[in-house]
Amino acid sequence: MTRDTVITGENPHHDKPPMQDRSGLQRTWAMIDNRFEEILIVAGFAVFIILINLQVVNRYVLTFIEIGNITTWTEEIARYIFIFVSFLGASLAIKKRENIRVGILIDRIPEHIRYAIDAANSIFMLYFCYLMVMYGFNLIQFQLETNQVTPALGIPMALAYSAVPIGFLFMGCRLIQALIEDIKGMSVRDGLLTAGISVLFILPAIVFKDGNITLLLFGYFVLFIILGMQIAFALGVSTLATVMATDAIPVDFFPQTAFTSIDSFPIMAVPFFIAAGIIMGNSSIIEKLLNLSDELLGFLPGGLALVAVVTSMFFSAISGSGPATVAAIGTLLIPAMIKQGYHPGFSAAVVAAAGTIGIIIPPSNPLVIYGVVGQQSITELFMAGIIPGVLTGLGLMVVTYFISKRKGWSGDRDSFSMKGTLKAVWDAKFALLVPVIILGGIYGGIMTPTEAAAVAAAYGLIIGLFVYKDLNLKGVYKSLASAGITSAVIILLIVMANIFGRLITLEQVAETVADFVLSISENKLIILLLLNVFLLLVGLVLEALAAIVILTPILLPMAMEIGVDPIHFGIIMIMNLAIGLITPPVGVNLFVSAGVMKLKIEEVIKGVIPLLITMLAILFLITYIPQISMFLVELTR
User: Fold this and answer.
1) CA angle, 178 then 180 then 186, to 5°
2) By percentage, how much of the chain surpasses pLDDT 90?
3) What pTM was estimated for this model as a whole?
4) How many whole angstroms separate alpha carbon 73 and alpha carbon 365?
5) Which residue among 149, 239, 315, 527 is buried most deeply as judged by most CB within 10 Å?
6) Is the peptide bond between 585 and the residue preceding it cis, with omega within 30 degrees of 0?
7) Residue 394: count of CB within 10 angstroms of its CB
8) Cα dihedral across residues 397, 402, 403, 409: positive or negative
């Protein structure tokens, strides 16, 4: 299966011996090996969720208690714990082989060659980690020599910066483990092949030493992407190879960039929103939202299909993720739709398309990432995403209704029931409060997006543990560990993109691209069309978050130069990449929804075509009628 998504799975080469067959020492080591990062991640999540909620509570509830300068010191501690947790989460993601990569080519070549390429990739990733550890400890030594301390608590900055070398040390150890597992099953021929591939990787840097920096940078990046290297490391390793060939910037600059790029309070909204979505997705909240949607629309032709779209809109306002929305809703609805007579491919297609709303409607993780990378207001981006998200949902519902009516797929009952609807609203009241808390808190000026995300995570825990009581401590542990891995993959992507971006800025790539596009046409409408076509093509092969961190620094300046508001451009970019979630060969949502019932991907693709056309039409409207995105934003400016 071709994927550009989070790839999960243990190495298939070797099976570990059963736990009961090991000695006590082996069992202890196995437990440490399996749980060390997890325990620290869960503890870190718990601490910074408490800290951020504490500053909100102190601001509005316990105003009579003075806990020092609480906003300053809680934010400072939370930020530094977040950085440690992010790097530890990246280490755990390597262990569990959960990283974003492009498998279009690598998954289609013979197995022994694929293993050799994977081993070569691991060697280069390992060398990158080695340099980050070495220069990271040099940075710590400099911090100690200059006696630099944090502004709020006076903690030595060396302690905070130690997250970089320690994190990459753990990543390096996990890469060594993976490499050992990979090479155990190799023949001598495969080992020589790995060595040969590694030499081939190095050759361009030697042959084109002191060559064109931009050509080397993007050439290496494309090479590593095609050969299946994790996208985050492809960014970092391609930058390293270019720097070592051209001396464009000093390598010891990398660890400092790795730290400063995520030493940011707004970016902490990402793990909080992910945690909130996972926690609530593991509770009965999703079922209550489904019941409410069914009461509202279940009597119409295509009732269950319409329920899928509406529930996706509700759950999107909680999870902020497309694939997570598809997985949560598809597991429950796709089997029910097929049982009721809907075509299997169409059933999966509706859920896949509806799941795209998860990255358009707030709180959207891609919008947060765009805001951080493009240095734009996350609050305004969230506001700009509301109408396009709702418009997308309505458009999908209209098309779904007419398709269902033509096919004779009736609702599950004859008429609308006000009594049943009111009961469903009451049952779902705690779920419906989530977007009110998040968006009301942000737009009401009560909380920042990060604080709202932390409150949402805490709210999900309280509801799951004490109200619905369908979440226990083990479930909390698993949810936070999963959130740690998922968010760490995204954060590492941002870290590496910032390192990569230093060379892009140095070489003025954004200006060069803008000059090239403007040489084709200076007409704003034509340039927007070209940007849309380009982003749609990118969405075919690249995961949305990766595309955002790579392309925003390049495309945003050009968009602003032709007079496009950066907030409006953010919605255009997100909408294009949302469409990429349902376009082959890489459409993540397609594979997630097809996997629910083990359907052939061809069936789902056929079913998604009318929905895809609908989304393209909505993209056209959003692009050329800025007021759709900017109406609510302009009201608050």
Assistant:
1) 110
2) 45
3) 0.85
4) 26
5) 315
6) yes
7) 15
8) positive
